[in-house]
Amino acid sequence: AARLSGGENRLVSLPLSRIRVIMKSSPEVSSINQDALFLTAKATELFVQYLATYSYKHGRGKEKNALTYSDLSHTAEECETFQFLADILPKKILASKYLKMLEKEKRDGEVGEDDEEDEEEEEEDEAVDKDVGS
């Protein structure tokens, strides 16, 4: 395998030093071959290009002649191939909607906790009734 020369580094746009740092952050990786580093960088670029192209074609990008975050998040949510990105590219929501969601969850959680406490009290009462009856 040929070693990367200065000219081959130009075949990738992503900074190889950053990719090396990311790869080394994995505890299973002890050393990184230059060829593996180059191929990882190239594969990453091709993946990002494919994601962007797919999102542009299947989103509203054509209408606006631009690729937007919402196009990317929609692709991550709707396309099975990209669903693993759904947590990384969540749909944007307004802060006011998020606060309302939190309040609703809190209310539902309190109701759920009250229900659990009621169930526990009923179980204790049943246990006491059984002990008294025997």
TrEMBL record:
<keyword id="KW-0539">Nucleus</keyword>
<comment type="subunit">
    <text>Heterodimer with POLE3; binds to DNA. Component of the CHRAC ISWI chromatin remodeling complex at least composed of SMARCA5/SNF2H, BAZ1A/ACF1, CHRAC1 and POLE3; the complex preferentially binds DNA through the CHRAC1-POLE3 heterodimer and possesses ATP-dependent nucleosome-remodeling activity. Within the complex, the heterodimer with POLE3 interacts with SMARCA5/SNF2H; the interaction is direct and enhances nucleosome sliding activity by the SMARCA5/SNF2H and BAZ1A/ACF1 interaction. Within the complex, the heterodimer with POLE3 interacts with BAZ1A/ACF1; the interactions are direct.</text>
</comment>
<protein>
    <recommendedName>
        <fullName>Chromatin accessibility complex protein 1</fullName>
    </recommendedName>
</protein>
<dbReference type="Pfam" id="PF00808">
    <property type="entry name" value="CBFD_NFYB_HMF"/>
</dbReference>
<comment type="function">
    <text>Forms a complex with DNA polymerase epsilon subunit POLE3 and binds naked DNA, which is then incorporated into chromatin, aided by the nucleosome remodeling activity of ISWI/SNF2H and ACF1. Does not enhance nucleosome sliding activity of the ACF-5 ISWI chromatin remodeling complex.</text>
</comment>
<keyword id="KW-0808">Transferase</keyword>
<dbReference type="InterPro" id="IPR050568">
    <property type="entry name" value="Transcr_DNA_Rep_Reg"/>
</dbReference>
<dbReference type="GO" id="GO:0003677">
    <property type="term" value="F:DNA binding"/>
</dbReference>
<dbReference type="InterPro" id="IPR009072">
    <property type="entry name" value="Histone-fold"/>
</dbReference>
<dbReference type="GO" id="GO:0006338">
    <property type="term" value="P:chromatin remodeling"/>
</dbReference>
<keyword id="KW-0548">Nucleotidyltransferase</keyword>
<dbReference type="GO" id="GO:0008623">
    <property type="term" value="C:CHRAC"/>
</dbReference>
<dbReference type="GO" id="GO:0016779">
    <property type="term" value="F:nucleotidyltransferase activity"/>
</dbReference>
<feature type="compositionally biased region" description="Acidic residues">
    <location>
        <begin position="111"/>
        <end position="128"/>
    </location>
</feature>
<keyword id="KW-0007">Acetylation</keyword>
<dbReference type="InterPro" id="IPR003958">
    <property type="entry name" value="CBFA_NFYB_domain"/>
</dbReference>
<keyword id="KW-0238">DNA-binding</keyword>
<keyword id="KW-0597">Phosphoprotein</keyword>
<keyword id="KW-0175">Coiled coil</keyword>
<dbReference type="GO" id="GO:0046982">
    <property type="term" value="F:protein heterodimerization activity"/>
</dbReference>
<feature type="region of interest" description="Disordered">
    <location>
        <begin position="105"/>
        <end position="134"/>
    </location>
</feature>
<dbReference type="GO" id="GO:0006261">
    <property type="term" value="P:DNA-templated DNA replication"/>
</dbReference>
<feature type="domain" description="Transcription factor CBF/NF-Y/archaeal histone">
    <location>
        <begin position="13"/>
        <end position="74"/>
    </location>
</feature>
